[in-house]
Design brief:
The two termini are about 20 Å apart. The protein has 24 helices and 15 strands. The strands form 3 sheets. A 7-stranded mixed beta sheet has the order 7-6-5-4-1-2-15. Strands 8-12-13-3-14 form a 5-stranded parallel beta sheet. The protein has about 950 residues and is an alpha/beta fold. Keywords: Coiled coil. It comes from Guptibacillus hwajinpoensis. Pfam families: AAA_27.
Length: about 950
Amino acid sequence: MKLLELHIYSFGKFEDFQMTTISSTIHLIYGENEAGKSTLLAFIESILFGFPARHEESYEMNHHGRFGGTLTMESNGEKIVVERTKGKASGDVTIHFPDGSTGDEENLKQLLKGMNRSSFRQIFFCNLNTLNDYHRYDEDGWNQVLYEAGMSGGTSLLAVEKAFDKRQGELFKPGGRKPLLNDELENWETLKKKTNEWAKKNGEYNRIVQNKQQLEGQVSEHTERLEHLRSERRNLDREKRVFPLLKEKRRLESHLSKLPKYKPFPEDGLIRMDKWKEQAVLLSGESESMLKRLQKMKEEMNSFDIMPEWKVFLQDVSYWNEQMVLFRARSEERKELERDLMSIESILGDELDSLGLVREDANHANTSFTAREELKQHIEDRNRSDQEYRYLNESFQSAQEELEKEESEYELLKGRLLSDSERERISNSKIPAGRQKWQGGLVICALLLFIGLGLYESWFLGIASSAIALIGAYLMTLTKENSHGSDHDLLIQDLELRRRVEQAKEQLDRLNRTYIKAAEKVDRWEAERYQIESAIKKWRSSNTFPDTIPLHSVLDSFDKITSIKKRQQNYSHKQRQLEELDYSLKVVEDGIKKVCDDTNITYYYAENAMQLLLQKADEEREAIREIEKLRDQYQSLESQLADINEKLTSCRNEMKELMSIAETDTEEAFRTKGNAQKEAKEILNQLVTIDSQVDESDLCSERISLEEIESELITVEREERSVIKKQQEVYQQLAAEQERMHLLTEDGTYEDLLLQQKQKEDEINALAWKWSVYKVASDLLVKAKAHYQEERLPAVLKKAEHYFNVITEGRYTAIFPPSEGMGFRVMHSGGKAYKPSELSRGTVEQLYLCIRLALASISPIQLPIFLDDIFVNFDAKRTEKAKSFIKEFSINHQVILLTCHIDTTSGLGENIHVLERTTFSTKKVQ
């Protein structure tokens, strides 16, 4: 299975984080410390094997609702997506297969072939932390480290084996004393000895127990008799205490029976009757006073004179007063508009005068964005044409000047040549044969140098070389006879002039061609310039743009005309605003004038009329407030009067109701019955007090005098003291028996010792079972290691041997497993075998890495191998070789390399992802 993509919803520091297109061979993840490399590995483990338990390290973020993510993996050529989100203990997992079907946790276990989190860490994750104590390992330590690296990938088996031995030693050692099982066996022997001793004195113990039980029976009998006597004494004490109360109760009941009829009568009837009668007198006086005040208020309300339609009037005044605020603001706004219109009109006049236009010209001109862009393009074309013309004109003038200069020089050189007759005369003059040959050779040589160097190198070099040759020929002529020397010099000069004439002729032809080309470019420019001028003229006509505006300022004029049109639009808009303001001001004035006419107020202007209306409205409001105030008071007094009358009626009804309850017709009869009821109530209260102190059982007493009660009380107390004395004697005998029993049971009873012996045997059996479990597990582990050493270790070492040979560039050729008391050995190419402790740290780390990779390569399930900073202790050469080896290894097995060293990233291809050290990472990585 290969990892292709991952998407983290929320996990640790990562939130909505994605890594796509992960390489199927080698993929490098670089990040500084705390950048998230360990969190990324923990996420992959959690998706495959479940989220950590709550008490373990938690990567859940409280602020994010969706915890988990997905892994996209390739299995048997098919792409599957494993998704795990927060749910049950280890999370809810869903597998999305290519055919659209889904799977659950069981399907994931089948894909992983039963591998768990611990095996994944030990086989497919490799770092060099195990080798941190490199200098402390002895030979056995190195053998154990390499053995574990090839067997399970970690040190778990070593730890398990040591743990088994430690647990067995803690439980039991033959001949030991501190182990638990040894200590428990000694305690069991001691208990067994005590139990045998108890069996001998068990008869005496049984006799003491029987005697003690008899004494305890006597104690129970005495205790019951004491309880009976104490209960009877308490009853006699109570009868003695309540006897006077019973006597008083009989007297009160006799007096109550002699009173006149007092029932039925209402509770607190006399007090209530006095209360209602007093309230009725007060309420009657308040009612008469209230009627007088109501009559006076009614007369005062009728004295006010207000407008019939005062509500409409107040609403109109309030409305037009609010409108006056807008009226004032609009008046100021109208003045401002008039000033703005005058200002705009002045500016428009100045701008039109500056352009020499009238408003109709500006209105007819097209000032759209498209028209301006077209004009701008035409102006830019014309400016570009001007620049091009300046360049072409300079080139044309330069070509013309050079041509004229070269023509003058050519004519000058041509005039200095010898005539044909003169050349013939000099040529016919005799020159010594030898000298003539040398001179001719030098001239020919000069011509050849001039032509050859001029064609292939440079004309200047040709001229210089030919000049040297001619100077040589000239020096040779110095020895010539006087008659022939002068002619010969003329001939040489003529040859030099002819050569220069030829050169000037060629230069003249070249400059003439340059002049013609410059003239042709000027002609083409004039044609293009004509097209540009025609386009500008056509634009003026199509957009109704005045011809009077100079071309150099047409673009600025275009912007000014655009501004003028906007000002004209603004001017028209403000004129419409002014008309609307005039209309709204007239509406307010007409409304105020109508209200003044309705109220007989003279209208002069809006402000004055509004002040008069507000004054009138205030007067009306004040009158209305006074009337409303009086009306409220009148209504309040009416309500109070109704309440008083209602209370008065209620008082009278209450008085009638009390007499009805008492079944009397007059108030006097009611009061007579009330006095009798009051006296009866006092007697009944005294009876209740007595009853609260006397129980029903006290009423059933057959004793008729206080002396009889006291005599019985003395008899009971005397018998109680006698029973207490007997009880104390029995307690003394019982204490003596308990002491003898205590002496026999200091070390526990026989039953207790038997129980302790049984419990101790159960504890010994439990410890023996635990020791046997560790013993069996330890034996099974030894057998598993032996099986691994015979079958799996050779396969791992065979692959590791090949990897080690490659990564060390053939320096080491073989790895020998432990056998016959000897540990691991590696064979050097020189034929010498070395122990791991004899190797350098870099070589040991190479050996450890090769064994770990070999273990992963033969695993029944192929998952990505995660290598964490494995180059940190390698030198430059070893690092490069290790990189090359891992790249080759990743062809058949996907490798994900984690590092915090930037140098490690070089030479490992382009499949590199950089983790940034931030609080949260939400970057999507391609």
